[in-house]
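Technical annex, item 7. During the second reporting period the consortium partners agreed on a shared format for inverse folding records so that results from different sites could be compared directly. Each record opens with the tokenized structure and is followed by the designed sequence. A conforming record, contributed by the partner at site C, is shown below for reference.
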């Protein structure tokens, strides 16, 4: 099981109070995690990535094991600690402004 943490506004939309656990088939990639997340929580479709292009939205970031994975290819494997459920895949709402 993969653990995914969501920012507050997406937890509210998905009606969850903490990390979500997902069954993700191998290989575990960002795309596979997001596909499983959107399948389990259809109300999140279009909020994390564009529904047509599947590109990450501009103010959404992905982190795992202390690393920013936002610019990694979507089909690249996530760290082994995430794939085994030891560490969460974190979806963060980025902040902008000055």
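Designed sequence (site C submission):
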């Amino acid at each position: 099981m993969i653990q995914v943490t969501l920012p507050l506004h997406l937890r509210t939309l998905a009606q969850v109070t903490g990390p979500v656990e997902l069954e993700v088939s191998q290989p575990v990639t960002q795309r596979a995690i997001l596909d499983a997340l959107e399948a389990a929580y259809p109300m999140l479709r279009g909020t994390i990535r564009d529904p047509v292009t599947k590109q990450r939205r501009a103010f959404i970031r992905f982190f795992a094991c202390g690393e920013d994975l936002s610019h990694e290819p979507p089909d690249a494997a996530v760290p082994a600690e995430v794939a085994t459920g030891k560490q969460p895949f974190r979806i963060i709402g980025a902040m902008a402004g000055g």
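The CA atoms of residues 14 and 43 lie 6 Å apart. The beta strands are 2-5, 20-22, 60-64, 67-68, 89-93. All partners now use this format for quarterly exchanges.
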